Amino acid sequence: MTARLLPGSLVQFFDRPGLLAISSGVMVALSFPNSGLSFLAWIALIPLLTALEGTDLRTSFRLGFTCGLTAYAGILYWINIVITEYGHLPWAASIPLYLTLVAWLGLFYGLATLVARAGEQVGIKSAFSLPVAWVAGDLLRSFLMTGSPWAMLGHSQYRTLPLIQIADICGVFGLTFLIVLANVVLYRALRAVSGAGVPYPVKSALVLLILLIATLFYGFNRLNGGESASQAPLRIALIQGNIPQDVKWSPAFQDKSIAIHERLTREAALNGVDLVVWPESAIPFFFQDEPRQAERIRNLARELSTSMLVGSPAHELRNGKRVFLNSAFMISPAGEVTGRSDKIHLVPFGEYVPLGRFFPFVSKLVVGIGDFSPGERAIPLQAGQTRIGTLICAEVVFPELGRAYVNNGARILANITNDAWFGRTSAPYQHLSIASFRAVETRTPLVRAANTGVTAIVDQNGHINTMTGLFTEGFRIGEVRPGSGNSIYLKIGDAAAWLCVFLTAGIVGLTWFKRRKSGIESE
Description:
Elements lengths: L1 H4 L2 H4 L4 H15 L15 H7 L4 H19 L3 H8 L4 H31 L4 H16 L19 H4 L2 H27 L8 H22 L10 E7 L13 H15 L6 E3 L13 H14 L2 E12 L2 E11 L5 E6 L38 E3 L2 E7 L6 H9 L4 E6 L9 H16 L3 E5 L5 E3 L5 E4 L6 E7 L7 H5 L2 H28 L1
Parallel strand pairs: 1-2, 2-3, 7-8, 8-9
Antiparallel strand pairs: 1-12, 3-4, 4-5, 6-7, 9-10, 10-11
């Protein structure tokens, strides 16, 4: 009766297979921060796999897409807060933009299930094809359309330290592969137990068991291996000024904003520190162009005899044209500026408007300077004897940038960010969960100074040693030993994930060839 009252296009989403796919999406969403239900990732896909049984290719894509759409609608709900509260757009504009983004991300779930189902039809087991296609989709979405590597399944396990150590070999993709494989094996085992006439997945279960044992053995071995003692630790102070977003760029609030950071810095440095880190755009003016305010900050470094890493917009001439940059300046204990690091990967609509010349009526969501230009090189900054790789805001979600800084000599990664525009949502915790993987992948500790939180210190094993709450004023201090900068992932990058892309292409090609051959023979 209910189905008759719904438009035909909606009936498919709310039939039994559609509801199973939606339930999988809900569990995927709940496995991410800040619900604390990360274990759900290991069983979340079982309802979806149940729904896929016996479906045609079109239906398999629809069900996978429905799962992905549901998952990202739950994970990225905070996008609407960003657009309406800080972008000052009405809900009528926010909802279509939000749905476009979650649909784009859900598309890759649909493509993974499509590939897996197509492979099954020509004899390729889903225990192989689904994990491979899932990882391939995650890699492709990490750089297509400027890149969206947010909330991959592996990120949900950031607190499970023995599991995530394999990230220094294959990145987060290796953990995602394991999670998807576990879901397939558990599904097939449940089907066998239920008496559905399905054989027990002995071979795939054995492969999963071997991979899990190897992963845990490697993980515990890395955790118990100790840290590199090649350099002395740095005592680092991370400042969280908690400057409200609506006054952050107000000229009238500049002095007060700097005063808050000065006071917190002095409190943090009472027992001496080697490096002080201020958040992204903690200096809400051009450090290069405000000699009085700039001298004030230099004098603070001299007074405390410490290096300071401070976020500020910058500008320079490129090919005779003035460009603006989202940057961080390193100030030495002598009060001299010793280097500048520029943000390389910019946020569309946050720091620039794509194709802005064609859409002059579209403006950025973030108030402040005009459109930024990307930095040109990953340049570590020197703090004493240690080189610091600075990842500004969302740069930390892109593993290739962390790799670039460490391969260029950085032995501590610093993520300076302003997550105020996320509000009191789970987004800052999702941001932190992704950031922690950069430490493990590169075996380089990461310190994070966030304007409104979460400010944290993550060691090279991904352990979060200390962290602040949201929208509180304060600081965190820790002894941070420079990392070894020695991992397989630093050398090979996402080679394992690219292998999955080529294998997926092979599955698609083989499926097409066999289906075509079958069609010709049937004629």
